[in-house]
Amino acid sequence: MTSPRASESLPASRMTGFGAAGSSSVAGSSGGRRMRGGRTPGTARLSYESRKRRTQLLFVAPAVVFLAAFAVFPIIQLFRMSVSDVRVSNLGSDWQFVGLENVVRNLGQGAFGGVVVNTLLFVAIVTTIGLIGGLAVAILLAKSGRWSATILALLVFVWALPPVVNGSVWKFLLGTQGLINSVLLDLGLIDSAVPFLFDDRIALLSVAMVNAWVVIPFNALVFRASIISIPAEAFEAARVDGASRWQEIRFITIPAVRPTSLVLFVLTVVYGFRSFDFIYVMTFGGPGTATTTLPFLGYVQAFIRFDFGLGSATAVIAVLMVAVLAVIYSRSVRREEIG
Predict the structure, then answer these.
(1) pLDDT (tens digit, 9 = 90+) per residue, 135-144?
(2) CA gap 289, 164 in Å, rounded
C-alpha cells in the first residue's frame, strides 16, 4: 500500500506537472500566435495598413502633380503678376513689384464700377433663371416615360455642347435678321427687329438668358435625381389627405430638395462669375461696355492692351469673389453630409 506521505505528495506532483504543462501550453499558444519573421498579428496589421496607405498615395500622386502644375502654379503666378508691373517689354525678365498699384488703378477707372455691377447683374440673372428653370423642368420630368427620356437626352445634348458652338448658334438666332426676330415680325408682335445684342439696355439680359439656358439642363438633372429619391409614400399620403399638385410641390418636393438647392445655388453663382465664352462670342463685351464683366475685362486688359499686371489684378478680384463662394459651397456640402 502506498504510504500516507507518498499519497500526500502525489497531488502536489500532479499539480506541479499540470502547472508545467499549463505553462508550456500557454507558452506554446503564445508562440503559435507569432507569425513568420517573429511578427505578431498587430505588427502585421500595421504593416498592411502602411502598405495600403503608400499605395493610395501612389495613385493620388499623379493627380496632385497635375493640379500643382496646371492649377496651383498658375494661381501663384497670377497673384505675383497682380502686384507687379508686367508688360510685353519685361514679360520674360524680372517684374517690378508695385504692390497694390494695379488694384488702385482698376478702382480709379470710371468703367470699373459699371463692370462690377454688370457682373453682379449677370450672376443674379443666370442664378435665378437657372435654378427656377432647372427645378421646373425636373418636376415635369420626374416621372419616367418615353417623352421624359427623350427630353432628358436633349437636355444632356444642350449641356454638352461647347460654349463657342452654343454661343454662335444663339448669336445667329438673336441677330436682327435672325430666326427669333423673323418669327416675331411674321406674327405681327413687333414692328421692327429687336437689337437683342446691340442695344445696351437689353444686351446683358440677352447674354445672361443664353447662359441660364445652358445651365438649366445640369440643374434639372441634379434636381430630378433628388426628386426621384423622395419616397413615393409621401406623395401617396398627401393625395389621400386631398393635397393638390401645387401643395405636393410646396410642402414635399421643395423642402426635400432644399439641400440640393443650396449646393446648386453656389455652383450656379460660381458658373456665372466665371462666364466668359458666351460674352466673347456673342457681343465681345459690347455695345460699349454694356456686357463687359470682370473675367472679360481682365482678358481685354491682359491680351488686347497687353497690361498683364492690370489684367491679373482684375482676375484676382474675380478669383477672391469666387473663393468666398467656394468656401460657402464646401461648408454646405459638409453640412449636408453630416445632416
Answers:
(1) 999 998 888 7
(2) 21
Q: What angle do CA 134, 136, 137 make, to 5 degrees?
A: 65
Are 194 and 112 in contact by the 8 Å Cβ rule? The answer is: no
What is the distance between the alpha carbons of residues 84 and 95, in angstroms, rounded to a whole number?
6
Q: What radius of gyration do the chain's Cα atoms show?
A: 34
pTM for this model (two decimals) = 0.78
Q: What is the pLDDT at residue 138?
A: 92
What proportions of the chain, in percent to the nearest 5, are helix, strand and coil?
A: 75, 0, 20
In the numeric block, the cell 462669375 is attached to 273
Q: How remote is the C-alpha of 311 from its chain's centroid?
A: 25
**Cell for 118?**
454688370
Count CB-CB contacts under 10 A for residue 9: 13
DSSP assignment of 148-194: HHHHHHHHHHHHHS-HHHHHHHHHHHTSTTSHHHHHHHHTTS-SS--
> Could you give the C-alpha distances from 323 to 102, 211, 274, 318, in angstroms and in order?
20, 21, 12, 9
pLDDT tens, position by position, 95-122: 999 999 999 999 888 789 999 999 999 9
Alpha carbons 147 and 238: distance in angstroms, whole number: 26
Cα-based distances in Å from 226 to 108, 146, 255, 265: 47, 20, 11, 15
pLDDT in tens, 176-221: 999 999 999 999 999 999 999 999 999 999 999 999 999 999 999 9
Grid cell digits, residue 8: 500526500
